Amino acid sequence: MSYEENPVLKETVTGDNVLKEWLVGYVGEKLNPEDANVTVEMIVEVVAAEFPEFILALAEENFFRGYEQALMDSTPMRELEDYPPELTIPDDEDEEDEGNG
Question: Who contacts 86 (Cβ-Cβ below 8 Å, separation ≥6)?
Fold first, then answer.
């Protein structure tokens, strides 16, 4: 699977709880798929079109969590003894010294 593909989007959604039943019914009525199956991708498309603030909130949260995780993952790299000094991230003090010199 490439990062550009998400197989979950192609999965058919079943109404195994009240919210899913309503959402599958709503999306099914809006898009009227030929095979009568509603996929996750269809739900995302309809929600994005009709409630973009919801999708934006999810996307922003996902972005910031990913960014935070990347920063946490990079911290141990800088603590390794043999970590090349030219790859270290300068501290704020280092940047100030360069600007004054």
Answer: none
Domain count, the chain: 1
pLDDT in tens, 24-56: 999 999 999 999 999 999 999 999 999 999 999
pLDDT of 69 reads 82
Q: For residue 65, is it within any domain?
A: yes
Q: Are 31 and 61 in contact (CB under 8 A)?
A: no
Give the residue numbers spanning the domain of 66: 7-100
- Residue 36: left (phi > 0), alpha (psi -120 to 50), or beta? left
Vertex 65: Cα angle to 93 and 12 (nearest 5): 160
User: What's the pLDDT tens digit per position in 48-70?
Assistant: 999 999 999 999 988 888 878 87
Rounded-to-integer distance, Cα 1 and Cα 84, Å: 33
- Contact by Cβ (8 Å): 58, 49: no
